[in-house]
TrEMBL record:
Classification of source organism: Bacteria, Pseudomonadati, Pseudomonadota, Alphaproteobacteria, PS1 clade
Originating species: Candidatus Micropelagius thuwalensis
Keywords in alphabetical order: Lipoprotein, NAD
InterPro entries documented for this protein: NAD(P)-bd_dom_sf
Domain of life: Bacteria
Stated name of the protein: Membrane lipoprotein
Length: 284
């Protein structure tokens, strides 16, 4: 099996390492020779972009494609811009394409429970760009699978680490909840989809328990035996425009589809399980 990654971020890197151990061949795009050397050292075939388009030769024998590159500011998809022709030429070879999207495509639902079939609420600009990018990929005719990721946490990216670094905050907005998902469970979901492709399907990638963000920080502090940071009211908290925009969407997302269609049993069904495991492992 041969996976080609457009972008090798947090999720793609974790998945690639696991697949290589299973005997997969993995390739990934990069932009610098330094990064290419790092990829090679980890067993990944680098494809150095350097402003050029990806060719059929670059893709090689890839039969699985993972896209983790966000859309441009105008909503266009950069991967389609520089690799669309090569992907189209290998359409018969490619068995599965995974697009890492976001739960932002659902918009705001004022805290209500939703699923993949719920009509979108009011969309942020980021959500609109993701909706546009998903539509562009759907028009390619490739065997697309859309993974709408909730807030990602895992080793190196979690409230325990934020507390250790002094960057954790407890910002309170009445009634606000967020969904989240552990990195290991994202990988389980992607692997399950690769094993059982269903072209055109979208999946909400989240755990069972949407929760207020301040509760997550409080629990992490309890695990560490430290005092949590003081509560801050959202209305007066100093937040970047990006951080503040996330609070403009409030929804509880059902994850039935990943369980019923992909047969996934989450290793970390809520933030307590995920943070506890990270703390006990000492690798947070």
């Amino acid at each position: 099996m041969n996976l080609f990654c457009f972008g090798l971020g947090y999720c793609a890197d974790y998945l690639s390492a696991k697949l290589i151990k299973q005997g997969w061949q993995v390739s990934a795009t990069c932009r610098t020779s330094e990064k290419a050397a790092v990829l090679e050292a980890s067993g990944i075939r680098p494809v150095l972009l350097s402003g050029k388009k990806v060719t059929v030769t670059d893709l090689g024998k890839a039969d699985h494609i993972l896209i983790s590159v966000p859309p441009e500011q105008d909503g266009s998809d950069p991967v389609l811009n520089f690799a669309g022709a090569a992907l189209a030429a290998l359409q018969d070879q490619i068995k599965w394409v995974g697009y890492l999207s976001t739960t932002g495509v659902y918009g705001d639902h004022q805290g209500a429970w939703i699923d993949e079939e719920t009509p979108a609420g009011l969309l942020s600009e980021r959500g609109q760009r993701r909706v546009a990018a998903e539509a562009q990929w759907a028009a390619t005719g490739l065997p697309m699978h859309y993974f709408r990721l909730a807030g990602i946490y895992g080793p190196g990216r979690n409230s325990l680490r934020a507390l250790q670094n002094g960057t954790a905050r407890r910002v309170v907005k009445q009634g606000q909840v967020f969904s989240r998902i552990h990195l290991a469970d994202i990988t389980r979901i992607l692997e399950a989809s690769m094993a059982n492709p269903n072209a055109g399907r979208a999946y909400s990638v989240c755990d069972d328990t949407p929760a207020p963000p301040q509760d997550v920080v409080t629990y992490a502090a309890e695990l560490m035996g430290v005092s949590p940071p003081a509560l801050q009211d959202f209305a007066t908290a100093e937040l970047s425009p990006m951080a503040r925009s996330f609070y403009g969407e409030n929804k509880r997302i059902r994850n039935n589809r990943i369980k019923e269609e992909l047969g996934v049993s989450l290793e970390y069904p809520d933030y307590r399980a995920g943070l506890s495991a990270l703390w006990e492992s000492g690798t947070y």
